[in-house]
Design goal:
Number of helices: 6
Helix content: 25-40%
Strand content: 15-25%
Radius of gyration: 16 Å
Distance between the termini: 25 Å
Structural class: alpha/beta
Number of strands: 6
Strand order of the largest sheet: 3-2-1-4-6-5
Order of helices and strands: EHEEHEHEHEHH
Length: 183
């Protein structure tokens, strides 16, 4: 399979972390980078340096992370990419791990690959509960166990995403992708 990968950074109001995430992506991979600004107060294109590998798409108003990802998937499909690696713009994922996703894509090109955030013991209890609750219900609905169903660091094969008939537009979009893919 001839892989064409794009790194996508969905972002909403992350002016302090976005420049570092973008710089990390530029230094740790050679792929095109698509920033999808979901109506941030300060537009993403004002926060990052101009670079020939960076493209910014913007919703004029916040529509939700799912809508931002759908815009990215539509754009990348039209541009001929086979896979999208998503990394959140809030800095909770390390761009140096992008190449680990590439290795997995090469070995499992049809699979959705989900990163696992290591939540420290002192992370907010509600965050740990939310992740565990989401993991549990995904397992109940699909029989598939994942360690971090809410991670935004993922690799998506675009040919699979196009066939899922996705309906949601907010944060539940990523969970819908996992559930429908498992079904």
């Amino acid at each position: 399979m001839n892989l064409r990968i794009c790194v996508c950074i969905p972002v909403y109001n992350n002016p302090h972390s976005l420049p570092d995430v973008v710089e990390g992506c530029l230094s740790h991979c050679s792929f095109p980078i698509l920033i999808v600004d979901d109506g941030s107060d300060q537009p993403a294109d004002q926060l990052v340096s101009s670079h020939d590998r960076i493209k910014v798409l913007r919703h004029p108003a916040n529509k939700g992370k799912g809508a931002a990802l759908q815009l990215a998937f539509d754009f990348c499909t039209s541009a001929g990419f086979t896979h999208v690696i998503t990394i959140d713009g809030d800095g909770q994922h390390s761009p140096k791990n992008i190449n680990s996703f590439v290795s997995e894509i090469i070995h499992r090109p049809w699979d959705i690959i989900v990163g696992n955030r290591r939540m420290p013991a002192d992370s907010p209890r509600i965050s740990r509960f939310g992740r565990n609750f989401s993991n549990f219900w995904l397992w109940v609905q699909t029989g598939i166990k994942v360690t971090d169903s809410q991670s935004g660091f993922r690799a998506y094969p675009l040919f699979c995403i196009q066939t899922l008939g996705l309906k949601t537009k907010k944060y539940d979009y990523e969970l819908e992708i996992l559930a429908k893919s498992a079904w």
